[in-house]
Amino acid sequence: MGVSENIIPALLLTLAAGLCTGIGSAIAYFIKKPKIVYLAFLLGFSAGVMIYISFMELLPDSLQAIGKFQGLAAFFIGIAGIGLIDMLVPERENPHRWLLTQVGDEPACPRGEESCLMRTGLFTALAIGIHNFPEGLATFTSALSDVHLGVFIAIAIAIHNIPEGIAVSVPIFFATGNKNKAFFYSFLSGMSEPAAAIIGYLVLLPFLTPAVLAALLAFTAGVMIYISLDELLPMAHRYGHGHLVIAGIILGMLVMAVSLVML
User: Fold this and answer.
1) Torsion of CA 84, 90, 94, 97, to 10 degrees
2) Which tens digit of pLDDT belongs to each residue from 203-234?
3) 3-state class (DSSP) for residue 146
């Protein structure tokens, strides 16, 4: 299947990954605080998949296609790009920092301060929308090159999106008492991923030569390594025991390795 034939599956996979932010909202309906220990293993699994794909598939393919200098440059540009986005989001509104404060003893806002909670939820939705944009482009680009790889990346990012949905919906629900409003803002933040895929398709399609696609794969690898090391693994360790997280990482790598060998 060529690049042009992969466009529709790539868009659908990116849409599915973005929609999983809404799953976090649904979970948030039934819990008082996002103390979701059972996600520790899945977050580790997600990180394992993304790290393995990045270093064993995407980056080597890129280096072989366009050379070490160009491939490594694209890889570190990907890391720098999403790192810059992370730094530009204020600490208080950063969705991952919000989650880490909520699983501790002290909430991000004092109890009963509805305006503070609403502001936290709205800014978190905006922050997640910004974070999800490069993730959507990563899913789309990977699936465009290889639908099989795109499926695994979409699953990994979808798992990552579930607690992000919680980060949006919980403060908005506590502030307004409206489950539908909480779900809507969470859903909206997740839609930046398919939006990124559509924009990437419209902007990149005229320039999508094999060399550009190879550079995008290295860029995608950089984005996923940053997400894994800066977001998934710290969050997973905070939710559960270290050995459980390590088991998830190893299983994620093993599943990915077996899948690639069986291709």
Assistant:
1) 110
2) 777 777 778 878 888 888 888 898 888 877 88
3) coil
